[in-house]
Amino acid sequence: MKIALMDSGIGLLAAAAAVRRLRPDADLVLSSDPDGMPWGPRTPQDLTGHALAVADAAAAHRPDALIVACNTASVHALPALRARLEPGIPVIGTVPAIKPAAAGGGRVAIWATPATTGSPYQRDLIERFARDADVTEVPCPGLADAVQYADEQAIDETIAAAAALTPPGVRAVVLGCTHYELVAERIRGAVQRPGRPPLVLHGSAGAVAAQALRRIGELPGSDPAEAAPTLTVLLSGREERLPAAALAYAEGRLLATVSPAL
């Protein structure tokens, strides 16, 4: 079994690690676009072109499924990606976990990139799944870039800025960008208030990993001791090793046991 994942950068690590935990025997293809990132400021047409190129590079390795591990690409390019690759390769998009966050009750904050915050796409999800919830949209300028380059100071500063915009009574935070899942515990530490119930963070990595298995008729589980999975890393179409910045995160170190970073 082979699962491919695509993103503009290393935000795909969270979903890739989730697939690895569910199926330690799965071969993985990680296709990203460091030459073309960030995708957020691009026009939808331009972004779709980049996403198709990254998807085509992954598809050349004949995966059983492709996870679009990027909220922005899922918003703008998912129909084009499915038209290009399905039915031969099932394409699984990433949707912010607004529905389960709202279902838990209480105040909810959605941390997302400035391009996604306030967008018709996100507002539609809020209207459909959180109409009766107390929702605050929190833009996080610079956080995805800081995570991408493992810039510790910038990560601390951008998380602190977003935490300052997050209402003190928030019970749950939706991580509306896949990059944010790599620093989830740092976000929890910045938002959690003394004396308040434990903050609940809602990411998408586990859900999209499980959905990919369902789409290809596979179940979780295998003997990690017997698994001999491969990891293929494509950077703007070039086959290379994991970027060194990936090792700053637990998810990257998990995957690096198969493919060491440069």
Automatic annotation (TrEMBL):
It comes from the Bacteria. The keyword DNA damage does not apply. GO terms for molecular function: glutamate racemase activity. Keywords: Isomerase. One of its GO terms (biological process) is peptidoglycan biosynthetic process. InterPro entries: Asp/Glu/hydantoin_racemase (IPR015942), Asp/Glu_race (IPR001920), Asp/Glu_racemase_AS_1 (IPR018187). The keyword Isomerase applies. Signal peptide: none annotated. Pfam families: Asp_Glu_race (PF01177). This is Glutamate racemase. It comes from Streptomyces alfalfae.
